[in-house]
Amino acid sequence: MEERSMAMPAEGPLPAHAETAAAAAGAAATSGLGADPRVLTILSTEHWSLLAARSLVYNEAFSRAGMYLSFLSATIVALGLIAAATGFSDSFLKITAVLLGIDLFIGYASLGRIASASAEDIRFLQAMNRIRHAYVELAPGVAPYFMTGHHDDPMTVVSLYGPVESSRGSSIIHGFTTTPGMIGTINTVVGAALAAVVTMLATRDPQLASVVGLVAFAVMFVVLLMVQLRLINRFWARMDTMFPKERDAR
């Protein structure tokens, strides 16, 4: 048989950025993370575990919010049926006060768990960013292809949810569009309605009950806002940053 040989094309010089990435990747492979071939498998496994944990947190938060809203809707329907049968009597007001009290308890219990789930989700995002930072250390050339960040400072982590609000007022307004903000506002309305019903039972004065309800709404709204801001600031203060964006920028 006739032997055929194919000439291999001559290798040209690598572009400057490719040479830099290759040199950095070679340095990472000989020291640090790249020294152990099991590192990539371990990082990938941890990445998938964090994705599964985020899915569980999302499902629990949405099911808690849905359960509370379903219970509140059922309460309103039941009160409508009771009012049609008994009128707005003292018995109706007492039943309303009891049901609204139960709704308020369920609402704040749901708000607490949803807020905890949101904090857990942020920590999972931070851990995933650290893993991406490890990927970049192993192969620096992949950094431009990551849509999400590979730094674990608070601003980079929060930016994964969308554009970061520049002013404090905008951040507060955006907070009320989130699930914890929505549930907290609904709890404030339920608490104000409960205060109005209790006042109506005690004084039989509709105007006073309306004023008490409005005042209760304003007070509970301000308290909710202050507590949420304090919890958020405390949460950010406790976050440990290992790979801040500013350090890599230098």
Per DSSP, what share of the residues sits in E-state strands of 2 or more residues? under 5%
Number of helices: 8
Spatial shape = elongated
Q: Structural class of the secondary structure composition?
A: mainly alpha
As for the number of domains, it is 1
Strand segment count: 0
Query: What percent of the residues sit in helical stretches (DSSP H or I)?
Result: over 70%
Q: Average the pLDDT over all residues and give the rounded result.
A: 83
Tell me the radius of gyration: 28 Å
- Our measurement of the CA-to-CA distance between the termini, rounded to an integer number of angstroms, reads 63 Å
Low-confidence stretches: 1-31
Taken in chain order, the helices and strands follow as: HHHHHHHH
Described by strand count, sense and barrel closure, the largest sheet is: none
Describe the structure.
The protein has 250 residues and is mostly helical. The chain has one domain. Helices cover 75% and strands 0% of the residues. It is built from eight helices and no strands. The chain has helices at 16-30, 39-86, 90-138, 154-158, 168-175, 179-203, 206-238, 245-249.
Topology of this structure?
Layout: H1 16-30, H2 39-86, H3 90-138, H4 154-158, H5 168-175, H6 179-203, H7 206-238, H8 245-249
Keywords:
single chain, 250 residues, mainly alpha, 8 helices, 0% strand, elongated, disordered N terminus
In short:
The protein is built from 8 helices and no strands. It is an all-alpha fold and 250 residues long. The N terminus is likely disordered.
